[in-house]
Amino acid sequence: MTDRFPFPGVRFAAKRLLGAVLVLLVLSAVLYALFYLVPGDPAQLACGERCNPAQVAQVREQLGLDEPAYAQYLHFLQGVFAGRDYSAGTSLQHCAAPCLGLSHQNDQQVTTLIVEGLPATASLAFGAMVVWLTLGVGTGLLSALRRGGATERVLTVLTLAGTGTPVFILGLLLLMAVCAYLQWLPFPSYVPLSQDPEQWAWNMLLPWLTLGLFESAKYARLTRSSTLEVLAEDHIRTFRAYGVSERAVVARHALRGALPPVIALSALDLGSMMGGAMLTEQLFGLPGLGRLLIDSVRSVDLPVVVGVVLVIGTAVVLANAVADVLYALADRRVVLT
Amino acid sequence: MTPEQPTGSAAKTAETPETAETAEPSSEPLIDVQGLTIDFPTGEETLRAVDDLSFRLTAGQALGIVGESGSGKSTVAAALLGLHRGTGARLTGTVRVGGIDVGAASVRELRRLRGGTAAMVFQDPLSSLDPYMAVGDQIAEVHRTHAPHVSRRAARERAVTVLDRVGIPDAERRSRSRPHEFSGGMRQRALIAMALACEPRLLVADEPTTALDVTVQAQILDLLHDLREETGMGLILVSHDLGVMAGSVEDMLVMKNGRAVERGPVGTVLSAPQQPYTRELLTAVPRVETRRTPVAPAAAVSSASGPDVLLEAVEVRREFGRRKDRTVAVDGVSLTVAQGETLGIVGESGSGKTTLGRMLVRLLEPSAGSVRYAGRELTGVRSDLQMVFQDPVSSLNPRRSIGESIADPLHAAGTLTDAEITRRARELLERVGLDPQWYHRYPHEFSGGQRQRVGIARALAPGPGLIVCDEPVSALDVTTQAQVLDLLAQLQRDLGLGLVLIAHDLAVVRQASDRVMVMRQGTVVEEGPADRVYDAPQDPYTKALLAAVPVLDPAEAALRRAARRGSDGGVLRAAAG
Amino acid sequence: MTVQDVLTPGAGEPAAPGPAAGARGAWRRLRTRPSAVVAGAVLAALILAAIAAPLLTAIAGQDPYTYHDELVDSASGGAPKGSFGGVSGEHWLGVEPGTGRDLFARLVYGARVSLLVAAGATVLQVVIGVSVGLAAALGSRWADQILSRVTDVMVALPMLVLAIALTTVVPDDFPRPLLLVLVMGALNWGGTSRVVRAQTLTLRRLDFVAAARLGGSGPLRVVRRELLPSLAAPVITYAAILLPSNIVLEASLSFLGIGVKPPTPSWGQMLSTATTWFRADPMYVLLPSGLLFVTVLAFTVLGDAVRTALDPREASRLRVGTRKEKTRD
């Protein structure tokens, strides 16, 4: 209990990460089983409706779909960890280490497609996080500290309305108001950060606001309830009974207890936003991972679907582990196991 | 360890307590409460917690406020520091502390009063400290609040000084620990250190020892006493326990339902109470000196080695956790209980007494050893062995009527018809002193004592031969305690039950037991007939426990304190003499 | 304790043996909250409208599937003729741009899909969640380990992603509303299971369960008589949170084009086509948005009210005084 060395923390983190890897392995196996073994004939899907049986057989051989199930999965894993080769007609295509297979649509590597989608998704997620952390946490704190007043009522109604609004409705309304009627902003169209930072920011402004506002409601509620919970604890009473000013009580004692869940949830959300911001991406036409997933679902491009889901899963599982570690560091009462 | 010299007016009054006590009009009393009434609006009705209360406290004096739960004593303590502001409570009357009108004071004045003039020590020392912050930093923060010119470093040093003063060993290093790394007693010491840091003229202690073991309680009370002698600060000691008053305060105020029932010098109130309520309270307090009145002279069992041994445990042992975290809760305990006999098991927290009790009825499986009932080895729970639990709230299912709870074992057995079961449950209610008409009522409609009676009725339902009572009265007020103990004794007499009474309160155990086992850290340190163990204890731990029990006579309390202050030998002498 | 325990509402909190145990007290508290009454009334009207959809559309003389090409202006790409999206005596709320289908009929029929799918999914989630949670809390240590890890994964993975992915592997002729119920039910039971497991573990340690065991109740009887009644309150509370989130999820899937198949009407699907129409026909955005918003808000408000009604401790929390005095009486 008394040691102050980072060792228990390191061991805890290592344990969490190992657990995360295991979860991902299981997840990949389940996904693989689900997508490649259960429904109809992947080779037929890959080849297209109009292929004749001979062509389907050829595709099957190319993709290694004639092998037994476990061998296919092992090959898939081999691709992830060591890379693998595909024969596309006469030429041989090498797919380097984290290889998630080839798209059935255009023979592009899934990894390449994902890497292309990442910048847009990451731009959206991090920008939105700034919005929800300032707006959501600020609102939540304010309504907790002004408990019982008119401020709290207004904020409660607003956050309640916020939690009730699906993100695409919020986005649509913002689009209508800001772009169509007020014409303050042009219709967003994605410009990569590397190409033109200013245009990038202008065009991302509305998506950031949409997603950030949407998430703010949740954060306001969490911050409020967690602050109120801490404020009702006995040790707060102690410092009040010793004449410590209300501001110091909140800043030094209440926030310390109230913020760990907020930080942890942010880490979690950031992780799931790698895929969860799909609705916002779709609405604003951002070429991110979410769009990639939807497009590949529509065209039944199984390797891409599996690849994207796995990448999103990885992000989520890692974010979970990070959130646990952050939480444990912030709240020393949590026992590291 | 050199204690800080007290400064300011507190020191002067301390040097001349007699003059302070007698000189009236010139200096204002430290506390002056006039006609204080506190109402809590709760939904439709208003709850009057304090009703027209007036009292004064001269600087340097100590006043004890005693009362059962709901008497409003803690509410008074909180009102002294104006802690009701912003909670919706309505105050009328005046409260003046250190010359400040608490009700009318500005926020700034109030903040100076809190901690600066009057400091508070709370009941639960764990939750009263910030779990995220080092103890020393918390004390330094409070100190700096009242002495803004003091540097961070100096405040930190001050924190170490006061921690050292209250007897935290290795204070420099321990000041960097967080509260959860401290034991219960040390946390309470740290809270007292926080109070000391600002050199207040008044200490308000609200049930400061209720959550602590009896030996630790004695240490904390001694510490408060010493600090008062040293710094001359006044003390308001709020407690439900009459015993802690005798050695700690000069005057006493007995409260009931928000009103002052009786007040006066502690010796007078405790030895010659004027009011019937005070007398009732005092009679109900179990005393460790009192021998047990034999339950049934005819069936008296002096030794359990006879043929009628009901329950026998042989070398039972219980471990929790695995590998590195393994702890031994009970380490090879053997015992016997005869029919109609009460075995008392006494010990402080962590002694393993509750674990042992649960193993006796097989709610827990022993890691080793065996338990035999009526000569047969126990393999699981059985209806002959029942239990009465400590917490009257969690021991009854809130969503079932008390009648259903009592009838449940009969339904489970499935030998009686529904009509017979209902009749039997009503009989049982009557037997434990409750109205059979209450069959359909729910637990939340009852008081703690009544719920405990329901628990006893449920234990009786399957017709057991032996009941294990795990702290059956520790959550109850002292008058209710006596009634429940009487009920148990009467049932034992009528039904010839064997009883195992587990408690931390030495007096309760003596009052109700034929034989007593003293447990410490999972083992039995002493065992024997109750009178022998209490009158002539053999083990040093038993002696120390008995020496720490609060007594109701102030003179005796002072003697014992003096004895404790001496070496360990002193403790032993006091216990033996 | 992990982050998820902290973030899952209800998990880790002790079971609430509150005052006025039982449904009657809760019902009384619920009725006296104006916001809850309003929300309840709105939902009742909506549910009635959904049930009576064929009747209502018959009164209007419309149906959700008939095209009315004459009502849309093909010159402007198919925007409805007339003001406010083509509101008229026949088409109370106007017509759909492009097709001219009656908007009122499509909205009312859309409510059917929305509510039915959400309710079905909620029931499935609660059933799975309660079973898994109970099994984890009462089963062996290994069962608990495995089930808890599975629950962790279920809670952590983004629902929408998996739901979308799963719809790819199901044959096209499988009925879509049923598919949505199954997918949503199978993926989103983690929260319920956590709440149930945590509550059960807390309850199991309480003395009244020990007393029941001593009284001769077997494990099944303990679950039925002692545990399940106390689990009802947290489960209902959690289901009240799940329901509106399921409505949003169904709308989201339809919005992404992965929900119910056209021509079956659905609010989310209308909104996804509305993205191209919000300049020419704002009514087409505002009507389904408004309806969806009001429905979700009403469910959320009602859920909030149900929670406070079932847990009246919140109101009397900030009282000064020792803890001891509050628990004793």
Short summary:
With 577 residues, chain B is an alpha/beta fold.
Describe what you observe in this structure:
The complex is a heterotrimer of chains A (337), B (577) and C (329). Chain A is an all-alpha fold and 337 residues long. Chain A has 13 helices and two strands. Chain A has helices at residues 7-37, 42-47, 53-62, 69-82, 110-145, 150-164, 167-181, 197-231, 234-241, 246-276, 278-284, 289-298, 302-330; strands at residues 84-88, 91-95. Chain A has a two-stranded antiparallel sheet with strand order 1-2. In chain A, helix 5 (110-145) crosses helix 8 and helix 11 (278-284) crosses helix 12 (289-298). The longest helix of chain A is centred in the middle third of the chain and has 36 residues, at 110-145. Chain A is globular, with a radius of gyration of 25 Å. Residues 1-6 of chain A have low confidence and may be disordered. In chain B, helix 9 links the parallel strand 7 (202-206) and strand 8. In chain B, the strands form four sheets. In chain B, strands 6-7-8-3-9-10 form a six-stranded mixed sheet, with helices on both faces. Chain B is α/β, with parallel strands linked by helices and 577 residues long. In chain C, strands 1-2 form a two-stranded antiparallel ribbon. The radius of gyration of chain C is 24 Å and the shape is elongated. Residues 1-21 and 313-329 of chain C have low confidence and may be disordered. The chains are: A mainly alpha (337), B alpha/beta (577), C mainly alpha (329). At the B-C interface, helix 3, strand 16, helix 14 and helix 16 of B face helix 10, helix 11 and helix 14 of C.
